[in-house]
Amino acid sequence: MTPNLAIDLDRSSPVPLYFQVAEQIAEAIRRGDLAPGSRLDNEILLADKLGLSRPTIRQAIQYLVDKGLLVRKRGVGTQVVHGQVKRSVELTSLYDDLRRSGQEPATQVLALEPRPAEEDKAAILGVEPGTEILYLERLRFAAGEPLAVLHNWLPLGLAPLSAADLEGRGLYEVLRGAGVRMRVANQRIGARAAGQVEAKLLDERRGAPLLTMIRTTYDDQGRAVEHGSHVYRASHYSLEVTLIER
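The structure corresponding to this sequence follows.
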């Protein structure tokens, strides 16, 4: 069978066999037992080794293709696709989420400087227009590939920030280390096409789909302590939300 892939079927279970196969392959991908680019045995061989019909195996493979975990390539076979970063919508930093998921985050600081607050940013941060605020622009990498361009605006003097700090830690970790107690955030998620500069930074074609996220974070006193406007490669990144019936 495909290297690093062991499938244990419960034939007495009400769970369909194709789904058991699909879920165990998906779990092997999530664990890293099946790395991006790994090839699966062909359907006939898998069916023979598992004692299943070829249509059952085909249904399992198609299920994983539809979920974006596998891809069929003519002349090559079925392969594991490049892993997409999936992030829950919580008050956490992208850097910390990537580190927890083993995605090897890295950061290139493109700008870290005081700038006069334009009217919209001044209103968000509760300062007078023209007041100097801190502007931060970063390029975030995951597993060696560019993932996101991050823009942040913060009140000046909120916390000591250096490029070295931000290359080794997430912004929220640095702020919390300085005593900033972030409690709640308003966030808006959208999508748009990549512009020329963004496409070059993210190694995408111009016009490629990008996810956008605009977030304003407030401390436990209700003061805005950070405003961010970020773009992410839609081919490498998704957001997950848990919905609860009320």
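The radius of gyration is 22 Å.
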